[in-house]
Automatic annotation (TrEMBL):
It comes from Aneurinibacillus aneurinilyticus ATCC 12856. This is Uncharacterized protein. It comes from the Bacteria.
C-alpha cells in the first residue's frame, strides 16, 4: 500500500513538472509570436 502511494506521488509530481514546463514553453512561444507579429506590423 505504501509503495503504491509513493509511486502515485512520484508520477503525479513528474506529470505536474511536465505540465508546468509545457505551460512555460507555451507562454514563451506566444510571447515570441506576439513580438514577431508586432515587428511585422511596424514594418508595414
Amino acid at each position: 500500500m505504501m509503495k503504491k502511494e509513493i509511486a502515485d506521488a512520484v508520477s503525479f509530481s513528474f506529470c505536474h513538472t511536465l505540465i508546468a514546463r509545457h505551460i512555460e514553453r507555451k507562454e514563451q512561444y506566444e510571447r515570441e509570436l506576439y513580438r514577431t507579429t508586432q515587428m511585422r506590423g511596424n514594418q508595414k
